Amino acid sequence: MNYQTLSNNVKMPMLGFGVFQASPSETEKAVGMALATGYRLIDTAVAYQNEAAVGNAIKNSNVSRDQLFVTTKVWLQDYGYQQTQQSVFRSLELLKTDYLDLVLLHQPIGDVWGAWRALEDLYRDGTVRAIGVSNFPPELVEQFLQINEIKPMVNQIEINPFYQQTKNVSYLQSNDVVAEAWAPFAEGKNGIFHNPQLQEIANVHQTKVGNVILRWLNQRNIVTIPKSIHQNRIESNFAIFDFELSPTEMEMISSLNTDVSMFNQADRPDVARTKNLINWHVNH
Fold first, then answer.
1. What would the pLDDT profile of 207-232 be if each residue is shown by its tens digit?
2. Among 13, 76, 244, 261, which is 20 to 30 Å from 270 by CA?
3. Residues designated as active site
4. What residue segments make up the domains of the chain, in order of their start?
5. How remote is the C-alpha of 119 from its chain's centroid?
6. pLDDT for 239-281, tens place per residue?
7. In 148-282, where does DSSP find H-type helix?
């Protein structure tokens, strides 16, 4: 396993396992298979409504807690100092652990400043080992870097071959913020698993298109959290450390970039509401 070292020297696995859109029963089974395969980073969220299932899978595994990197995210209705602290304590209970490795603010809407103050205090007292954000655009990340005493250590954003976010990733990495990719496979959009360039590269390395994508992200120093509920895919997605993409192959994948999100812009608050959010905080 390769690791990213966060700005506070905490080590984070480069390849993790996500549980977005998985039911509790699917989640518990899938996380159990992922842990048995070798995954050690598990990513969940309050909004996914499957934290308890993740906790059950961890409890029933043979993996000790200190070998795991458990991430959850605070949802919008829990923003604000007291609400955010209460949300994290609920997550601790559901996940059956007395600390979390990483807690993120899930979206840049609402009282993000009060929520961040809560995460800072939870970080200081050791309840949380690292704190960060999710779906935050560069403008708001910049404010967090300039204003807050403790800077975000991670920003989890959409990154895939069709939406590579090259400038955003470069900005984050130059400011010692780890970029973490959600939807690395674009949820299958644009025929990604049958893309000719990706398939050509996969054939060269005798692997699958999904492995090529995950390896491409790994070589860009981007953490990623692919999700599956099928054992063969869970195991396949983990097999990315026995080959390396050449500079030419990396450039081939770069050429697929469209700079357009694979998801409905209206459903992305970081795009639709960021300016209003920034203006609100400037005036309050």
1. 999 999 999 999 999 999 999 999 99
2. 13
3. 48
4. 3-282
5. 17
6. 999 999 999 999 999 999 999 999 865 444 444 444 444 343 3
7. 166-174, 196-205, 209-219, 231-237, 247-254, 269-272, 274-282
